[in-house]
Amino acid sequence: MTRRIVAVSAGLSEPSSTRLLTDRLLEAADRHVTAHGEDVAVEVVELRPLARLIADQMLTRFPSGELTSAIEKVLAADALVAVSPVFSGSYSGLFKSFFDNLDVGALDGTPVLIGATGGSARHSLMLEHAMRPLFSYLHAAVVPTAVMAATDDFGTTGLDRRIDRAAAELVTTMLVSPGSASSRQGGFLPAEAEQREAGFTDRFDEVTDFSELLHRASS
Amino acid sequence: MEFGIFTVGDITTDPTTGRTPTENERIKATVAIAKKVEEVGLDVFATGEHHNPPFAAPANPAVLLAHVAAQTERIVLSTSTTLITTNDPVRLAEDYAYLQHLADGRVDLIMGRGNTGPVYPWFGKDIRDGIDLAIENYALLRRLWTEESVTWQGRFRSPLQGFTSTPRPLDGVPPFVWHGSIRSPEIAEQAAFYGDGFFHNHIFWPMSHTKQMVNLYRRRYQHHGHGKHDQAIVGLGGQVFMRANSQDAVREFRPYFDNAPVYGHGPSLEDFARETPLTVGSPQQVIERYGAMADHVGDYQRQLFLMDHAGLPLKTVLEQLDILGGEVVPELRRIADARRPAHVPATALRHAERVAQPETVEV
């Protein structure tokens, strides 16, 4: 079974140091999955080209165009890598909007590695004070090591060690987690990945019978 | 097939003039629009229920519908929607049965759960109970309409001992009920369980989503033994703006679209029209788009259009209704009649038909 790791990268410039960090985290994760003797497919969702569609979805509540397939990739991932530049003491608004648009429960139990880039190491705690609570709220399984890459870090060896450690944690969590996409419960309906495995072509193929709804309403 | 309009009663500034109608003007305009629906040969007028600005839709749709009933002869009066969650089912049973008598049976209802969260606390309810309220309240409403003496106990209102809801439904037959849901599969299941209609207001949603919701209802309708899946009673929302020349329609509607509540200041008119049922163009373009809806969801029974929103002036709305009733709907009727197999009902049963063949009501 091939594991799917998807990175969401919210860098805005081109080239982007956020994307650079994202790629290095994915390389490391790829290496660790392979070391476990498993197959892995990695993919990056860049938010910059989706910016207008993300704003549209805030208003219309449904995704359109390329954003639809980007969200599907994220929902189908066995693990996520989420990387944002630090803006005004937090992740970027674009990064937040992408996750705000997901359905409730979309990331339940998903292993997530969080990372950020910024001008100096003084921004490091953003990951602990802003991004980790975001994913905790979403009931994702955030791994203990978060990776901050300040501009200076790209010229040091310490960053490599942190990347490696975080990627190892992500892969371990993914490989043992019962909460990955393949077994996630979506509340009223089975998770979409689970439905796909069962051969359902429509996410409403299985439905709670009304007698149970009646019973539930009155109890 | 039935065609009509539904209004949400929004009071919106006309972006082309900067003028905002008064509540009185909006309410009187709504009555004029309802009368126009009958005049141009449409079948249904439905009004929303709202409890907050900027809406001047009635808090109790039966008030407006009774007024319209007195000034029309033929059209069906409906709701879009009646809040089954926060209204007391006893009042719903009484008010809509009374309306049935005034309107000689020209009444049906679409049940909904409201468009704003605070409506729950305003009426002493908890939004987290939304689905449970819809299920319990409707189950009680059905009993109040079909049983003379109701002894009942539930979670959300005080118990009833030998209670009789008055007046009794006209000819002993309650109004036909649709259940409206955009996203909740539980509500599609509820409609299917009772063999009621399912109204999917997909005006802000792509067809892929609409198809899933309608298919769920159809499959469960058959599962619960009310008929074949294609005999289930389906209604859809719609949104159009027309001029003889499609460029004129786009030019005239664009400022209303760009500033509209809900989707304004977001996607372009062109993008939104591609993704949702919004169609802005010539009457022929509307006929082509809506004539093909049944290709996606199967033959359906009711098509309601949102025509009077986003600050469009009354004069424009009445012109739109002239085009809709005069040029578009006759053609859509012809297309629907031609493609519908004989075993598929053309409309939900009207009052007289329901009296002639009363349903067995399971409780």
UniProtKB/TrEMBL annotation, chain A:
<keyword id="KW-0288">FMN</keyword>
<dbReference type="InterPro" id="IPR005025">
    <property type="entry name" value="FMN_Rdtase-like_dom"/>
</dbReference>
<dbReference type="InterPro" id="IPR051814">
    <property type="entry name" value="NAD(P)H-dep_FMN_reductase"/>
</dbReference>
<protein>
    <submittedName>
        <fullName>NADPH-dependent FMN reductase</fullName>
    </submittedName>
</protein>
<dbReference type="GO" id="GO:0016491">
    <property type="term" value="F:oxidoreductase activity"/>
</dbReference>
<keyword id="KW-0560">Oxidoreductase</keyword>
<feature type="domain" description="NADPH-dependent FMN reductase-like">
    <location>
        <begin position="4"/>
        <end position="150"/>
    </location>
</feature>
<dbReference type="Pfam" id="PF03358">
    <property type="entry name" value="FMN_red"/>
</dbReference>
<keyword id="KW-0285">Flavoprotein</keyword>
<dbReference type="InterPro" id="IPR023932">
    <property type="entry name" value="CE1759_FMN_reduct"/>
</dbReference>
<dbReference type="InterPro" id="IPR029039">
    <property type="entry name" value="Flavoprotein-like_sf"/>
</dbReference>
From TrEMBL, chain B:
<dbReference type="InterPro" id="IPR023934">
    <property type="entry name" value="LLM_FMN-dep_put"/>
</dbReference>
<dbReference type="GO" id="GO:0005829">
    <property type="term" value="C:cytosol"/>
</dbReference>
<dbReference type="InterPro" id="IPR036661">
    <property type="entry name" value="Luciferase-like_sf"/>
</dbReference>
<keyword id="KW-0560">Oxidoreductase</keyword>
<dbReference type="InterPro" id="IPR011251">
    <property type="entry name" value="Luciferase-like_dom"/>
</dbReference>
<feature type="domain" description="Luciferase-like">
    <location>
        <begin position="1"/>
        <end position="295"/>
    </location>
</feature>
<keyword id="KW-0503">Monooxygenase</keyword>
<dbReference type="Pfam" id="PF00296">
    <property type="entry name" value="Bac_luciferase"/>
</dbReference>
<dbReference type="GO" id="GO:0004497">
    <property type="term" value="F:monooxygenase activity"/>
</dbReference>
<dbReference type="InterPro" id="IPR050766">
    <property type="entry name" value="Bact_Lucif_Oxidored"/>
</dbReference>
<protein>
    <submittedName>
        <fullName>N5,N10-methylene tetrahydromethanopterin reductase</fullName>
    </submittedName>
</protein>
<dbReference type="GO" id="GO:0016705">
    <property type="term" value="F:oxidoreductase activity, acting on paired donors, with incorporation or reduction of molecular oxygen"/>
</dbReference>
